[in-house]
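Notebook entry, structure prediction.
Reason for the run: the old model in the group folder had no record of what sequence produced it. Starting over properly, with the input documented here first.
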Amino acid sequence: MHFINPKTDFGFKKIFASPQHKEVLISFLNAMLYNAEPTITDLEIIDPYAAPAITGLKDTYLDVKAKITGDKTVIIEMQVINVEAFTKRVIFNAAKTYATQLKPREGYSKLNPLIALTITDFVLFENTEKFLTHFVFKEVEENIEYYREIELFFLELPKFNKRLEEVEGLIQSWAYFCV
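New structure, fully documented this time:
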């Protein structure tokens, strides 16, 4: 029996960006972003290609882009190779996707929150053993959280090293699937 490899561009998009199978993406996102709670009840998969609105601005190609419950946008990228300045690319894609929500002369109140989920087949954060990390803007000394307009999640596949019989719960099941 042959399976689709979720680490390939084709496989990842076939599994997670197929409108006829959006329940798969809903389950995956609820696991990764909301601790397996059924927070997302519906979503709309959006064209992930983001042409620059300004001449000279860099194009953006995302693996998956979706509008989820609560008018949030989620962008997902699967990255197998640790390319130069990858962490900067993650921030660029998130910031660009967030900023390009507005049309000329629209007020900032029209901006909706953005979540960027990045799946890596390499270790990105050497200083933690966690395979799933979540970042938000916080004040450095007092750890005061700023608005959660942009959140970054990272699923580092090499850090997930459980065998099938050790997997527990939806989060680990999806991590195992992606490995």
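Summary: Residues 86-99 form the longest helix (14 residues).
The old model has been moved to the deprecated folder.
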